C-alpha cells in the first residue's frame, strides 16, 4: 500500500496519469503545474522541519521515555518450583499456576468511573480501593489480588478496565495437608521456602525465572514477542525418603493416641535401620499448610527434630550396651535390686516395686532403675560418656533439617557425683526423638550408626560404632520387653519378634523439681531377626487419670503403625511359629463354634 502511494506520487510528478483515472482537466499549463508542485513541496518541507523540531527538541524527553517504556520491554518469564514427592513419586508438594491481578494506579485514576466496577470484581469496598490507588498515584504497579485461579482472573480482565493486568505466578499446594506440615514446611507469597525442607532445599527447588523482550501496546498488552533473552529454568524435583502411606498411618495413630490418652502433644519417627532413611515423621499439634494464618508457633515446630527431652528409660539398653562393651557385665550377670531403691546423692533411685534379684536381661525386661544404676557403677565416667557420644547423644544427627537440636550430653568434667547414675536411666541429659530413633537403629543395624536423611539417594555410609555381637545381645534382651512379663506386651506384633523399651519419665518443671506430669515413650525395632524399622513414639503429658505408663500410652501406637509398615513394605515374618500357632488356635475355636452352631441347628431342626 505504501509502495503504491509512492508510485502514484511519482506518476503525478512525472505528469503521468494514474491508471484508469480520467484526466481532471482537458488542458493544462506546464508553468502552473511547476508552481503548484513547487508550492506543495515547499509547504511539506516547512511542515516536516516544524514536526522534527517539536519531536526532537520540544517534546524529546517525553517521546524517548514513552518509546522505551511502552514499546520495547524486557519482562520476566515466571517458572514453577520443583515438586516434592515421596519415595514412590507420590506428590507431597506441587506448584499450580495461578494469576495475580495488578493495576497501574496512574492509568486507573484516569478512569475514576470504572473504579467502582473494579472494586466489585475484586470484592473490596470502592472507597477503599480509591484511597489505595490515590496513595500510589505516582506509581505504575500495585497488586490488586494475588494468586487467584485463572478463571477468576479471566473474568476480571474481560471487563477491559484500563490499567488492569494480570501476571502468572505459582502457588504451592500440599496434598497431605497437616499430616506432613512440619517436615515439608511452607513457602511465602513469593514461593520461597520459609521452614522445613522447603527452606533447607530452597535453592534446589526454586527455578530460575527467564526473561524476554516484548513489544507492548499503549494498554500494556503484549503484541509481539521479540526475542528470548534467557529461557526460564523450572526448579528441580526433590524425592524424599518418606513413604506417604506410612506417614499417614503414623500421623493418624498419633492423633488417635493423643485423643485416647488426653495428651497435649506428641511426636513419632520411623527410620529404615540400614540406610537411616526417614520413612515417617509426625508431630502434634499441627497446622494446615494450605491455609496459613496466624497459627501459634507451637503448632509449627517439628518437635521430633527441634525439641529435647530427658529420654528416661529408653536409655537403659544403651547403658547395658556400654557396660557390655566395657566388659564389666555379661548378659548372665546377676544383680540384686532389693529393696527396690538405693541412694543417689541426697536423693533416691527407686523402682516401681522391689524386683529382687535380676539378671542383665531382667533389668531391661522390668525396667529397673536400681539395676542399671548398679551396672553403671562398675564403669568409668569416660567410657560411659564416650559410648553415649558415639551413639549420637549430644551431637546433631546431621539430618540437615533446619533448626535441628543437638541435645545435651554433659562432659564428665562437669559431672557431680550422682550424674553417671542419673544418666544411666535417662535423666540429666536430653535428646531429640530423632536421636533416640538413630540410637535404636544403630542397635538394630549391627552397631553401625546411620545418618538420618530425608532425601532419597543421599544417605551416607553407616559408621561402625559398636561391636555387632553386643548390639545383637542387647536386641535380644529388648525382645523380652514385648513378651509376656515385659512392660510392653501391647507392642507385640503377630508373626514378628519386636525388640523395644518403654519409658515413663516425670517431667522436670521450671520450679526445679520433677512433677506429677509425664512423658511416655516407646522405642523399638522390628523384625528382631533381620531388623528393618526403628520407631520412636513420644507422648507428652497424657492425662494421669487415664493411665500414663509408656507401655499403655505409646506401645499400642508402635504396634499399629509397625504392623501396617511391615505389610506395606512386604517384610517377611521372623516368627512364623507363633503365627501358625495362633492361626491353628483360631481355626479350632471357629470349628468348635461352627460345630456348636451345627449342633444347635440340628437340635432346632429336631424340635
Ligand atoms: C517414674 C522418673 C524422675 C527423675 C517415677 C515414672 C526418676 C528419678 C531424678 C515415678 C512415674 C512415677 C533424677 S515406672 O520409665 O521410674 O514405662 O511402663 O521419672 O526415677 O530418679 O510415678 N516405667 N519410670 N522415674 N524419675 N529422677 C517405670 C519407670 C520407667 C513404667 C512402669 C512404671 C520411672 C513400669 C520414672 C513403664 O521404666
TrEMBL record:
Instruction: Read off the Gene3D superfamilies from this record.
Output: 3.30.450.330, DD-peptidase/beta-lactamase superfamily, Penicillin-binding protein 2a (Domain 2)
Catalytic activity of the protein: Preferential cleavage: (Ac)2-L-Lys-D-Ala-|-D-Ala. Also transpeptidation of peptidyl-alanyl moieties that are N-acyl substituents of D-alanine
Kindly list the places in or outside the cell where this protein is found, as annotated in its UniProt entry: Cell inner membrane; Membrane
Give me the Gene Ontology terms describing cellular component. plasma membrane
Pfam families noted in UniProt: PBP_dimer, Transpeptidase
Name the Gene Ontology biological process terms. Answer: cell wall organization; division septum assembly; FtsZ-dependent cytokinesis; peptidoglycan biosynthetic process; proteolysis; regulation of cell shape
**Pathway(s) this gene product operates in, as recorded in its UniProt entry:** Cell wall biogenesis; peptidoglycan biosynthesis
Query: Carries keyword Metal-binding?
Result: no
Residue intervals of the Penicillin-binding protein dimerisation domain = 77-226
Q: Which family does it belong to?
A: Belongs to the transpeptidase family. FtsI subfamily.
Official protein name in the record: Peptidoglycan D,D-transpeptidase FtsI
- Species, as recorded: Marilutibacter alkalisoli
The UniProt gene name for this protein comes to ftsI
